[in-house]
Amino acid sequence: MSAFFDQVYQATRQIPCGCVASYGQVAAAAGRPRAARFVGYALHANPHPGTGPDAVPCHRVVFKDGSLAPGFAFGGPDAQRRLLEAEGVSFRPDGRVDMGRCAVVCFRPPSEQEE
């Protein structure tokens, strides 16, 4: 696994329950702001999906417009939506996450993330 993947997992673990972040936000938090597509690759290979203490909650990462990932690796966008709704994430009538209410606005920089 690459160091970048590890940084993606560390950044994704910072997204609190009930919140989401965009692929671009996670890429920036991992130190590579132009690598949003590679965040998707990293999350697709997520070794610890879920919500437990050691989990990487990849279901909390969405497109910048609040759209869900059509290829969500762990059951598709319907499963992703169910997980997010169970955590209290609100959705707009068009099916996208309400980014104004649920988006994370601050991450710890990679240099301050846990090893």
Automatic annotation (TrEMBL):
Keywords: DNA damage, DNA repair, Methyltransferase, Transferase. Residues 4-89 form the Methylated-DNA-[protein]-cysteine S-methyltransferase DNA binding domain. It holds the Pfam family DNA_binding_1. The keyword Electron transport does not apply. One of its GO terms (molecular function) is methylated-DNA-[protein]-cysteine S-methyltransferase activity. SUPFAM superfamilies: Methylated DNA-protein cysteine methyltransferase, C-terminal domain. It catalyses: a 6-O-methyl-2'-deoxyguanosine in DNA + L-cysteinyl-[protein] = S-methyl-L-cysteinyl-[protein] + a 2'-deoxyguanosine in DNA; a 4-O-methyl-thymidine in DNA + L-cysteinyl-[protein] = a thymidine in DNA + S-methyl-L-cysteinyl-[protein]. It comes from the Bacteria. GO terms for biological process: DNA repair; methylation. PANTHER family: 6-O-METHYLGUANINE DNA METHYLTRANSFERASE (PTHR42942), ALKYLTRANSFERASE-LIKE PROTEIN 1 (PTHR42942:SF1). NCBIfam families: ogt. This is MGMT family protein.
